[in-house]
Fold this sequence. Notes:
heterodimer, A: alpha/beta, Rossmann fold, five-stranded parallel sheet, 9 helices, about 40% helix, globular, B: alpha/beta, 2 domains, five-stranded mixed sheet, 12 helices
Amino acid sequence: MDHRNNEIEQIARELRIDIAKMFYISKTGHFAPALSCVDIFAELYFDGIIDYEKRFSEDRDRVILSKGHACAALYAVLAKAEYFPREALGSFYQKDSLLGGHPNVALPGIETATGALGHGICFATGTAMAAKLDHKDFYTYVILGDGESEEGSVWEAVQFAGKEKLNKLIVIIDYNKLQASDRVEQLSPLEPIKEKWEAFGWSVLSVDGHDFGKLHDAFLTAKGSQSCPTIIIAETIKGKGLSLAENKPEWHSRAPRDHEWDIVCRELGIERAELEKI
Amino acid sequence: MRNAATRVVEELVQRDRNVLAVTADNRNEIYQHILEHFPEQYIEYGIAEENMIASAAGLASCGKIPFLYTITNFMSMHGYEFLRNDVCIPNQNVKFLGRSAGLVSSSMGPTHQGTEELGLLRPLPNLITITPSTPIMAQKATEYAYQHTGPVYLRLEGFGEPEYYTDDFVFEVGKGYVLREGTDAAIFAMGSVASEALKAAEHLQKERQLSVAVVDMPTVKPIDRELIIDYGKKCKLMVSIEEHSIYCGLGSAIAEIVAEEGLGVPLKRLGLESCVDTCANRKDLREHYHLDSRYIVEMLKT
């Protein structure tokens, strides 16, 4: 287990370097939100949670980034998992790129175009429902924002999935406690999250969203659910891994600038010149 | 025409296991029948249009063909961003049966009167919006919706609309149907209010020897441009009539073509200038908003 953890930690470190390189090119975008959920993606794609062999088939597991603004993390993971050539990362935010500021369905690995919040989880109830109707085995994974959960449509989806007992629907809430302008608890408190989702008929698990072993166990438990959908409350740190962006609301939608890149490179253990090499 | 459309869904459910009858607490007797006899092809979302629409996009992405039936305002207005982002932009194969389009809801008030949604739907990519005028057209348009891959939105009125078509009618998107020929004036109508135009045209022929054409226009995107140009050139006056806002419906679409083609023909648009602002039955509402045959006769006889 430890050995495996080390391997995934190394992958997550490389993904953070890729994300930094993308923002070095774009000079804009949602930097801290991507760093918050990149470990969750690393665990999903590189630790046997999704069925990698079936990734381009009709019966593939669906992964839906409902908080679409964190797309840099998903792009980095999809490139590493060879959904598309990694050179594409160099086009992040550039003219005619499929890697814009929010996911585009034309990019391999993207199921639906998210960006407006409270949509992805609704779309996901449809793919999970289709699996149920056709007795298929694929899972639908949704990465949901904590601030995003303020949208009413999220609760329409939660209610429907509970009613239909969509046991192959697994939501991971990226619970970093910050949203665009301030702390979630200042804007619109979410607690008690566990009790709310349980009341809608969901199974609720709570884990450290940066601990690969714990995430792994939670995913296995969720996949074993026979009677209801599961939400994994992943306790995360927005901007995780780069001290200047960690837990700071102002980093919601900005990229590092000027001398800040020196700090980023130091913490990632790379030379500044490497930022230009995708 | 609601039943004519949903009856097609019931037939399709039996022919194609991927067809789904879907609603948000708005089943009619035919959807009730589907629920009872084919429960595995029926999904009830409860009063939650946003989730219903995005979820339908998810279903369609897995090969399902969901037919969503509910009140047109709730579907198109409450669910607009979901219709736009989740269905239309990615071109998902979702079918919308929006009921109570136009002034069908009589005394129910503006919340239920579907009189602006064409303005919302027309700019959306990939979406074909159809306003059938009769039950047979509603049936044929629903069959078309199934054949077509991509989103289709039917604006359905209610029950007992006058019928001008026969069972061999062939529905074609983007085509206007000439119900009556004429050379003095041409009335372009959307929905069952075409019957008021027909009545007026018959009266004007008999009493005033005026030759008035009536054209049924179920789609405004694509629109039958050639037909509009043809009548714009041969008639002295064009009229549009719709149980819809004049600012974003059939009349405004015709005005675009009259201007773009430099036809120079006067165009009188009959329709609503605001949301429904009074309580009355449909007949009285038509009178109130100048959508009745008597008003058309008064307007054209001079």
